[in-house]
Amino acid sequence: MNAPHPSSPLAPAPAAAPPTASTAPTVRKAVVPAAGLGTRFLPATKATPKEMLPVVDKPAIQYVVEEAAAAGLDDVLMVTGRHKRAIEDHFDHSFELEQALAAKGDTVRLDAVRAPARLADIHHIRQGDPLGLGHAVLCARNHVGDQPFAVLLGDDLIDPRDALLSRMLGVRDRYTGSVVALMEVPPEQVHLYGCAAVEPSGEDGVVRVTGLVEKPAPEDAPSRYAVIGRYVLDPAVFDVLERTAPGRGGEIQLTDALQELAAAGTVHGVVFSGRRYDTGDKADYLRTVVRLACDRADLGPEFVTWLKEFVTELEETGATVRGRSAA
């Protein structure tokens, strides 16, 4: 990410009042929407939920729940759909498998199998119709009640060394209202995201969100700050979602509801420049697997050595092919 321009919302704003302590309720609940059809990964997702596709040796959704648990969110609601039973099974105990591993004395794999069920108190609800992210969040209303809550999208994996969610929870504690995660993206990518209009807050790396546009054309984008898949939401969002009409794509957009809250001055953004892995796109998914494999102490050294050799081979092969083509 580039350094902020002096006129950027990230530049200091001396006139702004400093944040004050609040008595906001502590956030304990997380909502993980996981009802998508995964059409970009067909045919792999015909019978396997896209959230269960492995990233090295764990399904993508496990990384998300681990992130929530590490931030102190011990109550996780997964909003799923039909044919997503594998997600429920993954976060449940598998007694036969556990007994077989215990009998073999394979404690390493036994701990790995037991870990998902021990991460948090995990609940499941089905989104009956695929009516968009806003509708998926609305499905969580009865479970969440009148408490603030986090929303974590399974397509975005945040490196645990960067602790984005914990920072967002701290901003929520100081300002109340809702908090979104923002990341500066190139102009040619703004049409892939909801984009935020922002102004300084007086706190480094934190902005006030004054407006939101869902997937704008580059020339219509209010900024290059894209909303990525982490939110800490005030329960007021539910009343707004109840009256939000279907928007882009005929779906109820969470961005549209947050636009109304932003207009009321109750939305802040945390600008993130750390390590984010996108598993919602085939090429990015492959890059994510490679990056995380390289970081693993048990896999990285051998894998990196092989990867270097493979890249060298590709370069040599490519040079030979180009040379033959040129001839």
Task: Give a brief rundown of this model.
This protein has a five-stranded mixed barrel with strand order 8-11-9-10-12. The protein has a two-stranded antiparallel ribbon with strand order 2-3. A two-stranded antiparallel ribbon has the order 7-13. A hairpin with a 2-residue loop joins strand 2 and strand 3 (58-59). The chain has 327 residues and is α/β, with parallel strands linked by helices.
Overview of this structure, please?
The chain contains 11 helices and 13 strands. Strand 2 (54-55) and strand 3 (58-59) form a beta hairpin. It has helices at residues 60-70, 85-90, 95-104, 107-118, 133-138, 141-144, 164-175, 236-242, 254-263, 282-295, 300-326; strands spanning 29-34, 54-55, 58-59, 75-80, 121-126, 149-152, 156-158, 178-184, 194-203, 206-214, 225-233, 267-271, 276-278. With 327 residues, the protein is α/β, with parallel strands linked by helices. The chain is 36% helix and 22% strand. Strands 8-11-9-10-12 form a 5-stranded mixed beta barrel. A two-stranded antiparallel sheet has the order 2-3. The protein has a two-stranded antiparallel sheet with strand order 7-13.
Feature tags:
single chain, 327 residues, alpha/beta, five-stranded mixed β-barrel, 11 helices, 13 strands, disordered N terminus
Any chance you could write out the topology, listing elements then pairs?
Blueprint lengths: L28 E6 L19 E2 L2 E2 H11 L4 E6 L4 H6 L4 H10 L2 H12 L2 E6 L6 H6 L2 H4 L4 E4 L3 E3 L5 H12 L2 E7 L9 E10 L2 E9 L10 E9 L2 H7 L11 H10 L3 E5 L4 E3 L3 H14 L4 H27 L1
Parallel strand pairs: 1-4, 1-6, 4-5, 8-12
Antiparallel strand pairs: 2-3, 6-11, 7-13, 8-11, 9-10, 9-11, 10-12
Helix pairs in contact: 3-4, 8-9, 10-11
